[in-house]
């Protein structure tokens, strides 16, 4: 427990300057680095990290979030990402043809999908930060929504948990914990909207209805993201994806919920404003 707390304090001390100076290259560089490590963790989990014809191109693709600092247009950024995905799919099928049955589509298909999910999610954080005027407030919701859900789901589960959620994937998670995470995520979104509205003297107005609805949906997605990554590592017999964060595991263990939230929030933000610039 002490190791987990110390690691959390050190991680926060590193993360805060990155978030404070998010208008510089430090945020996209950090996102690209985490994306690279996470992709390597996934490839290692799936026993493909030594298949260099797959691992090296995928790890090069993992730094795509860095491009978001230079391409601020949401549509163009997404279009380049889609083009990269199509090229990669063609490359993968070509690789399978020339391997002549030595490796199956399932063996490379799951890691391929998972790695692009990781890259798209970290890219989503960068897109949220730079593609709109309210981005410097919007992208923080990826972290607030995910980590508030995780934290309060844990405490609610410890205090009130009686019914197991999905014990085959995560034995300790409970239905009561899940509900607690959702409730506190909604409250956190409303509080965050109020704080943003206050510190900007009303220059940025919170859309409280959208924030409440987003809090509900984001918390649900956060928990799905957590469970999905747990399901993958259980399939391959792993306890943790890595050891970068002592007591917590690897990047995918610590950021699994954040990745899911980043993808969903990217879509939600294109459908309606959570904040309105006065």
Task: Describe the protein.
The chain has 278 residues and is mainly α. The chain folds into two domains: 27-131, no CATH class; 133-278, no CATH class. It contains ten helices and two strands, in the order H-H-H-H-H-H-H-H-E-H-H-E. The termini are far apart. The mean pLDDT is 88.
List the helices and strands and how they pair.
Elements: H1 2-20, H2 26-45, H3 52-61, H4 74-99, H5 105-130, H6 135-138, H7 140-160, H8 175-199, E1 204-206, H9 208-235, H10 251-271, E2 275-277
User: What's the structural domain tally?
Assistant: 2
Count of separate DSSP helical elements: 10
Widest β-sheet, arrangement of strands: 1-2
User: What structural class should be given to the helix and strand makeup?
Assistant: mainly alpha
The sequence of SSEs as H and E is HHHHHHHHEHHE
Count every beta strand, where a strand is a DSSP E run of 2 or more residues: 2
As residue ranges, the low-confidence spans are none
Helix content: over 70%
Sum this structure up briefly.
The chain is mostly helical and 278 residues long. It has helices spanning 2-20, 26-45, 52-61, 74-99, 105-130, 135-138, 140-160, 175-199, 208-235, 251-271; strands at 204-206, 275-277.
